[in-house]
């Protein structure tokens, strides 16, 4: 699938994020991210928010649910593993809750103005990979996958291209982040989330990126980076999540992870 871009207007959303929850914010919080690079957002001009999207073209070899196969094991076949390309990363946690592997799109329905069958999650099976963390770079990454009914991927790809998608992701992140922050007892001083452009990896459907800046009640400043890359093929949807607590995730790292997932998807 080729690269593409959707026009957008500059938006800023006030956010509160807890430092202690940074590596475990799944779905909506991970739906925010920032483009690669070593510069902090405070050193850069105010960016233009954008969701990078690819043209709506079908995969040449889509992943499908095979007749007679074990559906319960399907989604697990399409999440990240530690098999290669993740030097310096160690496993921390994995998705075991009942909501593990859930697509972020359902939580965005109201904001996108989608109701009923236009956004209903019909996933047959879901899975969340182990979270991999590099303590030196401050990057945590993981992925989610959903086996979905025929036709749902096309429907959801349309939602990714909604002109309000990035703004809705950021708004939902704010709600989830405030709840996580309150749970840890941290208070952030004058926090702000700024959505920025980011390159779309080859084979991906879309990407969202955000940097969150703010003071902490424990002292000092925080800087958190969020990236989510959306992928899919046939009857499988997948999302790659990256959270950075020092710098944005490198594009080389993102490329390695995306290549592994696209190879699984076919």
What does this structure look like?
Residues 38-61 are annotated as: Disordered. Residues 40-61 have a biased composition (Low complexity). This protein is α+β, with helices and mostly antiparallel strands and 266 residues long. The chain has one domain (12-64, 71-265). Helix content is 20%, strand content 26%. The chain contains five helices and ten strands. It has helices spanning 71-74, 109-112, 152-160, 165-184, 251-265, and strands at 12-13, 52-53, 90-94, 125-128, 130-134, 139-147, 188-195, 206-216, 221-233, 236-244. Strands 1, 2, 3, 4, 5, 6, 7, 8, 9 and 10 form a ten-stranded antiparallel sheet that branches. A hairpin with a 4-residue loop joins strand 8 and strand 9 (221-233). Mean pLDDT is 74; it is low at 1-49, 55-61 and 66-73.
